[in-house]
Amino acid sequence: MNHPVLTASPAVLPDWASQAINLADPRIGARGLYASDEFFAPLARMLKPEAAIFVPGKYDENGKWMDGWETRRKRHHGHDWSIIRLARPGRIAGFDIDTSHFTGNYAPAISIEATHCADDSLQALEQAVWQEILPSCALGGNQHHLLQISNDGVWSHLRLRIYPDGGIARLRVYGQPDTASALQAVAEPIDLVAMENGGRPITWNDAHFGHPSNLLLPGRGSNMGEGWETRRRREPGHDWCILALGVPGIIERIEVDTAHFKGNFADRCSLQAATALSSMPAALIAESQFWPVLLPETPLSMDAIHTFADSVAKLGPVSHVRLNIHPDGGISRLRLFGQVAR
């Protein structure tokens, strides 16, 4: 008898995490570099963007297949460790250390150190100066651990120490890329809202089938699940989300991609934009109702890239946009190309 695959429940994120991006997301460049041991499960699995799963009855040549990073049982003094490279150097607000499905085999404790290093080689990283940003703390099995830190450093690599051994299903590193100074030197138009450039969702009215952060990922979505999709609206109105640009800029061209959305794409979209007066979500919701129109309400079609230039209003430098979809549905990607404000 085949047992159903179990999927981990999502974490309920506090504001410091929900208004940040995951700097350990491999889709924007993060990578597991080194580990003291990967006997039961490789380090790369710990960074997967999908929720951790458990497959009853699934084994490989080393034992039970687990969806995360898991080391063998340590039979001598010491502890295991791993090093990951963040997608972009950035400031870190905190972590989600997820032990979902790890019950009798989770790591009992963890600490995290950080460094800024231009070289991924083990020799360079061993010689780098590391700072502990998360002191040793206890972990429990089969649960999310949302741990906020207070540190204003800009870091490129993390070293996880687990005491003494065991498994972690997922690591999320919530923060913000330190891209502003680098983008200021770029002369050509860039995607001002791209996640790798520091763009991030701030608040939204609905994300039942897909999170607004998917709008900002690189490339085209590989399926319908890699977009922002709301529930079917059964009342008047429309759905919306508010996004912060990675750096204030002048938007000149817009792309709206409905890849893989066919019977459920947003029928129409519009955008508003402004330099926000507040960074608080509640204030932004109220304020954004009166922002100038960047793109008037425009029809969309299924599974297509829509490009707008002539209809984009010349609003000057802006820091935030409000994407409205009428009345509901899904969009895979949003691109806002323009010049960084000097």
From TrEMBL:
Residue ranges annotated for the Allantoicase domain, each copy included: 29-177, 198-340
Gene Ontology MF: a single term: allantoicase activity
Matches recorded under Pfam families: Allantoicase
Top EC class for this record: hydrolase
One GO BP annotation of this record: allantoin catabolic process
Superkingdom of the organism of origin: Bacteria
Chemical reaction(s) catalysed: allantoate + H2O = (S)-ureidoglycolate + urea
Associated pathway: Nitrogen metabolism; (S)-allantoin degradation; (S)-ureidoglycolate from allantoate (aminidohydrolase route): step 1/1
Keyword Oxidoreductase: no
Keyword terms, alphabetized: Hydrolase, Purine metabolism
InterPro entries: Allantoicase, Allantoicase_dom, Galactose-bd-like_sf
Enzyme Commission code: 3.5.3.4
PANTHER family tied to this protein: ALLANTOICASE, INACTIVE ALLANTOICASE-RELATED
Protein family: Belongs to the allantoicase family.
HAMAP family xref list: Allantoicase
Protein name: Probable allantoicase
Organism taxonomic ancestry: Bacteria, Pseudomonadati, Pseudomonadota, Betaproteobacteria, Neisseriales
